[in-house]
Amino acid sequence: MTETRTSPTSATTGVPFSFELYPPKTDAAATALHTTIDHLAAAGPEFLSVTYGANGSSRTSSLDLLRYILAHTDVDPMAHLTCVGSSHAEASVLIREFLDVGIRSFLALRGDPPQGAVEGESFLGDLHSAAELVQLIHGVQTERVPYRETVIPGLPDARSVKTEPVKVRIAVAAFPNGHPRSRSTTQDIDTLLAKQAAGANLAITQLFFHADDFLCFSQRARQAGVEFPILPGIMPVTSPGRLRRILELSGEPLPSELSISLEVEPTIEGQREIGIEHAARLAADVLAGGAPGVHLYAFNQHETVLEVLRRCGALPTATSHRSPASIHPAAHSAAHNVRESA
Ligand code: FAD
User: Fold this and answer.
1) Could you tell me the distance, in angstroms and rounded to a whole number, from the CA of residue 326 to the centre of ligand 1?
2) Which residues neighbour 228 within 8 Å (Cβ) at sequence distance 6 or greater?
3) What is the CATH classification number for the domain harbouring 44?
């Protein structure tokens, strides 16, 4: 296999951005995703995050994708991890496995209960919240690398020992419009404070459709004492079907204007344009309001999210980054075919 590493160019506008990907389900989708990753990496993101199926259902495929990012790009891969239903020992083994392949960034999540389970019942396992998972990741990492040995110049057989745990980035989820199960908006801020106290150093938000949802939430979080950056999660919604699905999954309130625009637009290209324009405006507004960057839900495709970044000013419009098409020509054509038939 050719070892090609795609470097972040940072020939960008200085606005930090990142993308979320999910593990592919077929070999063809995996090949297509590798091409997508080449394109996304060439744009210079801060990190590429990879989702994790509830109850560990995507453990191997998530890890494979993270390994690919590590081996083929210079972008930091961020592993989503969930702890729902795990014992303390199982979660520790899982964290160690990810650390052992070289992952140093995590998005620590509690995860959703299995279908039909009631909050507060025993489905949770040993860890009851994302905050406890944050603590456990720090704990496992500290135990794993308790010290570093260095050769002493002139004394080839001697070693100096230094306690120097490698820093890990631990992001957590935040919900500008409230977690569907939270009892009040105060609870969402309190949860974020608990995650901060546990050692989280970044938050990424659930998708939202109005800049004020994010900006007001961030302001309330700051006033309550949340100090880490809160990255807005932005999803380009490029069809009425996708909008319906994500509202069902996220429980977010219906964005009526966007919904009507998508429903009345007859063409797929026109719907895509509406989704890109809406996401780009949202990104530009939150950035103007002080957001520390943008995190885009990429749906394993690069064209749409890169266009959103160009339109909101986070990427130069003239593509100054190198085209990775030359890196994997076979993969490029496979990717195109898969998306054409999707
Ligand atoms: P927690 O923050 O632990 O919260 C769960 C509930 O308990 C909330 O109602 C919260 O308010 C309450 N709570 C927790 N601690 C406290 C406290 N100390 N005080 C008061 N209330 C508290 N799911 C996946 O399965 N895989 C993924 O890859 C994935 N990626 C995601 C990425 C992002 C950016 C986001 C926003 C969500 C993602 N999810 C993913 C969904 C996530 O698993 C669900 O939202 C899940 O229901 C809760 O996880 P959490 O980490 O928010 O839990």
Assistant:
1) 40
2) 196, 200, 201, 202, 203
3) 3.20.20.220
